[in-house]
Hints:
The structure holds three protein chains of three kinds. By secondary structure, chain A is an alpha+beta fold. Chain A has two domains: 1-61 and 157-197, no CATH class; 67-156 and 227-298, Roll (T-fold). Chain A is built from seven helices and 16 strands. In chain A, β1 and β2 (17-24) form a beta hairpin. Chain A is globular and about 60 Å long. The relative contact order of chain A is 0.13. Chain B is mostly helical. Chain B is 45% helix and 0% strand. Chain B contains two helices and no strands. Chain B is elongated, with a radius of gyration of 17 Å. The two termini of chain B are 27 Å apart. In chain C, strands 2-3-4-9-10-11-12-15-16-19-20-21-22-24-25-26 form a 16-stranded antiparallel barrel. The two termini of chain C are 48 Å apart. At the B-C interface, α1 and α2 of B face β2, β3, β4, β9 and β10 of C.
Amino acid sequence: MAPQPAARPLLSRRGSGWLGVFQAMASPCEVHVGDADLATAERVVAIAAAEAHRIEAKFSRYRRGNIVDEINTAEGRPVVVDDETARLLDYAARLHELSDGKFDVTSGVLRRAWRFDGSDRVPTEEAVAALLPIVGWDKVRWSAPELTLPPGMEVDLGGIGKEYAVDSAAGLVRPVSARCLLNFGGDLLALGPQYGGAPWRVGIESVAEGGAVARHIDLTVGALATSGDSRRFLFKDGKRYGHVLDPRTGWPVVEAPRSVTVAAATCTEAGMLATLALLQGGAAEAFLEAQSVQFWALR
Amino acid sequence: MKLVMKGVVGLLVPTAVALAGCARVEPWDRDVLARPDMQIVADPVEAAADEHIYFSKEASSGGQGFGGGGCGCN
Amino acid sequence: MQLKNRRNAALREIGTPLAAATCALLGQSAPGVVQAQELMPWDIDTSMLIYSESDGRVQDLSLNLWGRKELREDKFLGLTLAIDSLTGASPSGAMPANVVQTFTSPSGNSQYTVAPGEQALDTSFLDTRTALSASWEMPVARLGLLSVGANLSDEFDYTSTGVNARYARDFNNRNTTLSFGLALANDTVSPVGGSPIPFSPMLGLGDLRNKDGDQSKDVTDFLIGVSQVLNRHTIIQINYSLSQADGYLTDPYKLLSVVDPVTGNPVGGPPGSGRFGYLFESRPDTRDKQSVYALLKRNVGGDVLEVSYRYMTDDWDIDSHTIEARYRFNFGASRYLQPHVRFYQQSAANFYTTVLFAGAALPAYATADHRLGEFDGLTLGLKYGQETSRGSEWSARIEYYTQSGNASPGAAVGALANLDLYPDLNALIAQFSYKFGKR
């Protein structure tokens, strides 16, 4: 997908506040501002949009010349990364460890074998096995600030990027107004309630088509992130292959819920818990119960 | 009981014919069937109103669900 | 075993190190908070219905409220309230005549007259009915659904209480659903002026010698049905139901004219009553009904076609056929137009008789109530619905219902041959509904 030029966010009246809409990270992004003051709303939306576009430009694997591109084309040479990238890589490493290897930012190359277009073109065992040698965070040499990937391996921060962008934008918006809700493609964070203390009314989309709302949530403060497989799957011989892959085998996780939504203090944390839950497959609900977090799993 | 037999046979034959002609639809293909306007009773309020009207003006009732009744109108 | 415990222990620990790692990533010193509360809103539907028959007959205004709420996960409470206000006049069962006819009202306190050639409509027909129902629905195991309910309705001269239960079970990857239902009701009739002794004659003003007290009946309904997904676009349902009513099934306000078998003119009533001969009707005290119902619903390129057929037969020898079809034209995702057509045909009850002939032996049962006679009914309707920007939906429909039937064979003797013994019924139905959306 070719990179889009950053379009000006559109602001419109929403209740007693404002709503700014823009496109970033291949998702529709919304910034709800509870303040009635237009100038404040414009500043908040501009800050959030700018941060979303900055993170997208810096970490998207579709952009040429950014740090991710440099890492993925280094062909075995060490790459020195900046502080922000280093923190993300530290986080990725820690997640890899905490998830027993199920969460792996080097597993992106598996998309070469798996194209989840609803067809029955399931890859052969050989095709998947051929990719396994270039998948695995343990094969990577990461010693801040130097990252060395074996030739052929790639890093994909798409699994962390959107939620991180929400939190990062929220941090910049907070000094301007805390009566805001950021929603980047379904991953959202409320910095505080609306004007007058009323919570934000959000809905978790049903897994049945038609986009009906399955659950209504009143969010006062904090984040909700959703991981799900909606329409990305393959279907062959009576078996359904969801798009969440186990990097240790290269094959889809079995029996995962269709959608998992988690509530946490930050969007990144909520998103990671949702993703880690999906990676547990049939044990997703048990995993989340053990974490004592609020969650909604739809099957 | 003859009445009952007629009724049961009348039910089984179309059922067998219908079941023979069906595909097996998986949960992720239930998008169309999940639409509100595709539900067996798409508008319960309209269905209840009609059931009550026809119960009070005709000798038949029910069929889809339990037949109206509960009024002095028939 | 030990390995599993260690792994479980590792899972339990993830929350804290994950939060700590996230704080490090985001450069936050203190952990934040989250406050999220799931809502279980009420799903509310309201509607107003107007039913209006021509020729000064029945008028009904009905207000309805329908509510449903998820109380706990997948457990639903349903409540409905309906208030009906009935006015207008209803046929009493007596036939028109070439002379002025005078009838005593049900209470015995007043009388009304009917001009020659006019239909005998009882104008003292006005009532308000209130009906309440509650239901509870919950899943049973993974594939079952149980719902239980109770209903209560009350009007000036009639009270009904009932309970019902229904169990549905999915099979075949939820492509097939089998349902069983049972409903029990007990109705009490307290007719104005008392319930008339069957076949007793209509008496004069203030004379309630032939009136008795309250009556009751019990109704048991049983339903078994199967719904089947045929393919991605089509679903069918087939139901079989049985209904048994026991008790007072007669209409206390309906009567039959007694006429001369040659002239067709009304004969005299009891001496001193000042009335012609009218006998109160009498129906059997049991009724067994069976019906078979089939429905097909199909998605046709975004529109919806619905076709259904019902056959009913009972031990009063009434057979009926009902064919109904609706086609919903969907315009985009938020507007629709739905025409509707319904054909109905029923045969007369074996004790339906338009008039009684003087001098003939009295049958075991008799009624002149058109609703148990032989007639065809046709309904044509159109409904329009639209979703509002707030996710609510309103709809309006208008329907025209017409019934035309036949008097019993041999009834049109003498003067009766030139009178309308089975007038057509023409009714207009208008309903406006508003369904509140959850936003």
